[in-house]
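Record type: ASSEMBLY
Status: queued
Input:
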Amino acid sequence: MSLFVIVGKNEPIFEADFSTSSTSTGASPNKVSAAEEGNAQLNQFILHSSLDMMEKAMWSSPYMNLRAIDRFNGHIVHAFLTAGGTAFLLLHDGSRGEESLVGFFKDVYELYVKLLMNPFCEMDRPIVSTSFEARVRVLEKRWLR
Amino acid sequence: MTESKRNAGSGGGGIRMLNILDRPLATKGRGGGGSEVSLSAFSFLFSEMVQYYQNRVLSIADLERKLEEAGYGVGHRVLELLAFREKQYRREIKLIGVLQFVSSTVWKALFNKVADSLERSTENEDEYMIHEREPITNVFVSAPADISQLNCAAYIAGIISGVLNGASYPAGVTAHHVAIGDGQREKTVFLIKFRQDVLRREAALSG
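Status: finished
Output:
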């Protein structure tokens, strides 16, 4: 279970839910999806409430990796803030070590910078590139599994 | 005819469109990196840009504002790129650190030199100045007498503003001509005026 969100200066610009591990062909698909939906909303809520904690943390640490900034019910929110003020937030259950989280963030950061070098990519606008999403998912498989 | 031929060729698995995310990031220009742009190519493009805007504005102030806007996006990208390359996953959380990042790291990457000087204004504590004797944008520019106050370095002012705003140090940046020595020659001064909340925050953090 983990949720990854990129937040620009004003709004979330990218979102990847890693918990939906492809189509789970259960016996009662409707029931499962309802529970999952409730969970997804809770996760969103936790992530967005942690933004305040991030604003506090960002001026006390000179590092982009702000580490764990918030905890809720066994979930941990890790944050990584780029030089341009774009935040990568990852909500996870704490089963992955710090090293793999940092590895994931650094690789996503490189992807993000590459994406930004495209002159047609607008600042602080939602990221619509499908290949960006595909690559983020590959990184998740490499670092967070 | 040629089009269909090429398509058929790529269908055979020869040519593949390379996504920007697949390519490595541009390396440093110096030392055989090969990503340096020739001055003439830049000057040609820049002069076209100035002419384009000149036909679409009513005043010099508008023209400078347009150039600043064009530079703003460049600044934001330059900030992320250089921070990624050279800062080892650290951010600037000191005002003076950000200014030094601009006058040395950014200047080196864009112009292959550091800025001539970085000064704090003696009159207003929220103002800083970067001096540059010959900005790359002004090398081949001689403005006619009726628009002599135009400074094309407004484009660079926009870049600075993009870097500072991106780094959460919002500031207004303007480019000005200043006469030096006997008055025959001019240098450009970039006046950086930070927003009030930036200084308040800086004081709170250090205090």
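Annotation: Chain A has one domain: 3-143.
Annotation: Residues 29-57 of chain A form the longest helix (29 residues).
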